[in-house]
Amino acid sequence: MGIMKTLFGGREGARRPSTSLGNGFGKPLDDKISKDGINSLKELMLKDMEAAQVLLAQSPENVQYAEILLSDEIVRGEAAKVLVRYYVEKSDGEKIDALLCHSATVIRAAASWHISEASESRDMEFALPAIGNALSDPNEDIQLRIMKALLNAASNEKTREKAVALLASALSNENDSVKLNAARTLADAAEKGIDITSAVRALGRALPGRNAEIGAQSACALVNAASNEKTRDDAISVLRNALSDKQDSVKLMVSRSLCEAAYKGTDISLAIPALGNALYDKNAEIRVEASAALKAAAEKGFHVSSAIPMLEHALSDRNESARKNASEALGHAVENEKTSEMAIDYLKNALSNPKRYARELAAQALRNAVDNEKTRTSGISAFAKALSDPNADVRTIAAQAFSDAAQDGIDVSVALADITGGLVDKGNESVRMKSACALGFAALGGLDISGSVEALGKAAHDRNPDVRLSVTWALASAAEKHISMEPALIHLSEAFGDRDAEARMNAAKAVSFAAAFERTNMAAASILGKTLTERKAKVRPREMAAWALLDSACSGADITPAFAGLGAAIGDDGRAVRFNAAMAILTSAEKGYDVSSLAAHLGSALSGDDREVAMICAKVLLEAAGKNQAIKPALGPLKSAGEDRNPEMRAIVKKTLAIIDKMAA
């Protein structure tokens, strides 16, 4: 039995190495010189491996001694290390093959380790056949080192094709561990941008199978390959074809992989139709992942037109995640010039979907058209039409869309007439409320909603308190922007009696702004004054009117048209009415307006029970006297107030009378 069979005994099942070991081998093992040489090399290996390596390079006999030491259990690992290093330097693939096929694991491990390390810095083409033979080593650590060597070889342009081909063939190995490691190595290679074209089809065949991890790693490799322009189309085609696999697990894995590829920015256009068809799959998870992949593709700006009809259908999916993904995908499609028109058409259709959540999601996607300046006209047109839809929910969605858009500062002026029409929606108070909000936001955004003011005024009488609140807020917002309130003034004054305090305040603010606006000053002030004289009404309207006049006066507005009402309000039963009325008069007096017409009312208040109001009225008379205004009707009450118990009141009256006396003199 030859000595090489003893030294390089092949492991069971592995290819046997060559029996040619080089010159000088074959001397009798009992030869004294040989024994001394072997022992000397052995001792040196145990002490200094680098020195042993140098010794090997000096003489072929030393190489033969090292080969003999492979059978020595003490130094066989060291012998393998110096030998593989020597053979790599000599580019001796046959001897490397023998070491990698040795029956002793320690020898194969040492050889595989150095091969993997050496492959990082030098061309290993001579060793590729040996590396290929070692791919299926039963020891997984050795497998991994061999895979690393192949990965490095794949990084070398000279050895790339052969290395990738070896990895591809390993995907058909009977050993799952070998297939898994090969798939992982190909994934790493593709991630580094290495062209793995020759392995793409093999990876596709490895997707299905009993071992899910192999499939997952193969899918990962394909995703990475799809990022490389050279392998993209082949990789996407393989993934696309796998979407029609019989196994749900494969389709689910592939859908996820395509989604991952799309999020990386990979163009998965070749798979778009197949992903669209997957939206009809019975498995909800597959539909979710397919819709997510389409969403990612649309978000990255890729053309998804072939899947738009399927995405519209998916808005009605039983699974919430699938529905939301479809909505977002359509929303991104709306923003894409190539798909916007088609997406908008399908979304318009979806607004009338029998299922409420589908309608809401369609509206959500269609909002993207409104947000995008290039598609805004189409989006606004679609929502304007929806405001007259027979379905109340559709109208609500449209009104909400306009409210959101106007709040975001989007110009919705072309739809103001349609939005105003929503104020009289008979079937849904939500439409009326949201339409009012849309008009309010539009006004705050600088749009002229003058044409809607009258309708808003009438809507201030709506039977629904939320609608009235929204309407009065919209009118207050418009008035603040100096939009004429004239068509709504009567309605606003009537809203002063609303049961909701916020609605009352909104109405008062609107009229106050109107009183401060030159164009409507006289009309607003007159209506406020008239409201103050309506004693048969509840106190709320008079409270709001007095507050509005005070607010207007503080803004410098001329409220003299309301003086008659203010004068009467000084003696009102309501304390807030009296106080605000008196303060409004005082503010006007301080601003320089002539309050002489109120002298009688002011004088009467000096002796009234409300001493705070009496004090304010005394201050008004002092201001008027100081400005040479005629306050003779208050002279008698002033003299009586000179004996008031309050020293501050007496001081104010004393100053006022002194001014009057000086004027008379």
Summarize it.
The chain has 665 residues and is mainly alpha-helical. The chain has helices spanning 3-7, 32-47, 49-58, 60-68, 76-89, 93-100, 105-118, 128-133, 140-155, 160-170, 176-191, 197-206, 212-226, 232-242, 248-263, 272-278, 284-299, 308-314, 320-335, 340-350, 356-371, 376-386, 392-407, 416-421, 429-444, 450-459, 465-480, 489-494, 501-516, 521-532, 539-554, 563-569, 575-590, 599-605, 611-626, 635-641, 647-664. Residues 1-30 have low confidence and may be disordered.
Radius of gyration, in Å, reads 46 Å
What portion of residues belong to β-strands? under 5%
Mean pLDDT: 91
Number of helices: 37
Number of strands: 0
Shape: elongated
Helix content: 55-70%
Distance between the termini: 151 Å
Note poorly predicted spans: 1-30
**Structure class:** mainly alpha
Major β-sheet profile: none
